[in-house]
Amino acid sequence: MLTFIENYKAKVREVREKKEEIEAQLNKKIEKLRRIEDQIYKLKMKEEKLRYPSWVNEIIVPLAQKLAEMKGLSYEIFGPFGLMNETSIFLMKDPSISILEQEVWALTIVPGLFKGDDNLYYYNGETEDRYPKGTIGEINGMNNVKVKLPDTIEEICDLLEFHKN
Asked: Taking the model in full, what pTM does it have?
């Protein structure tokens, strides 16, 4: 009977040893997992802090500054508005006075940036009848003919429309 008991105890010891071995491996893996989870958390925090650049701040503001400098005027930017993200640059003598109460130079720009198109456009004053009156497309200016904005500041400056209010 003693042999049976000794066999049993030997098997218990063997299982305990294997279990301790496995637990040690598990603990290593759990610690590795915790480190990875911590790294994932830190990366997610970094990602959340990232902000996409504003096309208005990165493109329209410097353009407005350059146009204002060329004309010796101040500028104000309105927009983006509507489905077309129309953004208007107004150049005026006195920024403390409403654009409705003074002479202004203006240009409305429409980005193609959100449709995989790296170009900017302006309305040339012409219209098409693609969208019936009163539809979302017509209300959002989608009947206005867009033309690619020229590449040089001088050519863009020539596109400014004068409004005498």
From this structure: 0.75
